[in-house]
Write a structure and sequence with these properties.
alpha/beta, Rossmann fold, six-stranded parallel sheet, three-stranded parallel sheet, globular
Length: 287
């Protein structure tokens, strides 16, 4: 079996063209310009790359994107004051704080200072606590992007055995809740899962979502033929090439569908961020 490659890059572009641009055009006709502000503290090279992709997708969709850059000497109090100003600016519909932040800044406090109605990353406790209502809030971007990937490639979710590896509040836990909402039978594997639990769950998985942050952790021989694999990880190998949390060559010979790294989940995370910004503008202006 040779797996079908799920191109998040192609699907994201299709969403921009067919869904996001028309929504922005309708907002523009009502005199509304969706606006996203990215707060970037420091000069992390990986963050620079992510921000460029966000700016690109925003521009293609018709969303105005502004990056506010600050030195790594910025204090937590100064950052909170900046967020407060943005919360009170009606022309801004979405704001994200690019992570990681410099040492000495409480990430949780900063994220939760963002108004839930402008929290287009979906990271605030308020939005995470409402995962069971699914579409009535701004969902975390990577989990929502994963669900969209499955839907766009016609992967059945209801009644399927789904294994989620990793239980972070950014990816693992929220995507598990979204999948349960859609009727999947979900098993979460984590650092405290036994080897027997992991082996049994992986062999039974119809859909496998891997978000553990460990390079090429999962290999094809651990899986059953036909599994759909969503690889959230991204790592740079010693030879400079990028890879994910799964060993692509061995897994792609077992899976029916698999996301590549890069070009899989990453673009879907960004396009969901832009979609959330548009949604925030629509809800504020009752469009």
């Amino acid at each position: 079996m040779t797996a079908e490659i799920i191109s998040g890059k192609d699907i994201a572009q299709q969403i921009i063209n067919d869904e996001l641009q028309p929504r922005v055009e309708l907002l523009n006709k009502k005199g509304v310009q969706p606006k996203l502000v990215v707060i970037f503290v420091g000069d992390n090279p990986a963050s620079q790359s992510y921000i460029r992709q966000k700016e690109k997708f925003a521009t293609q969709s018709g969303v105005f994107s502004e990056v506010r850059r600050f030195p790594d000497t910025m204090t937590e109090a100064e950052l909170l004051a900046e967020i407060d100003d943005i919360n009170n600016d009606d022309s801004i519909h979405g704001v994200i704080v690019q992570l990681p932040l410099p040492d000495g800044i409480d990430v949780n406090r900063v994220i939760n200072a963002i108004s839930p109605t402008k929290d287009v990353d979906g990271f605030t406790d308020s939005n995470n606590e409402n995962l069971d209502i699914h579409e009535a809030f701004l969902a975390p971007c990577t989990p929502k992007g994963i669900i969209t990937l499955l839907d766009k490639t016609r992967v059945t979710i209801k009644d399927q055995k789904v294994v989620v590896m990793g239980r972070s509040r950014i990816v693992g836990r929220p995507v598990a809740e979204m999948l349960k909402f859609r009727g999947a039978n979900v098993t979460i594997l984590h650092s405290k899962s036994t080897n027997t639990e992991k082996s049994s769950a992986l062999k039974k998985a119809d859909i496998l979502i891997v978000a553990v942050g460990k390079q090429e952790l999962v290999h094809g021989e651990e899986l059953s033929p036909g599994v759909v694999i969503i690889d959230v990880g991204i790592h740079r190998k010693e030879d400079g090439k990028l890879c994910g949390d799964v060993h692509f060559d061995s897994c792609s010979s077992i899976a029916s569908k698999i996301t590549p790294v890069p070009g899989g989940v990453g673009p879907m995370t960004v396009v969901t961020l832009i979609s959330n910004t548009i949604k925030a503008a629509e809800e504020k202006n009752k469009v």
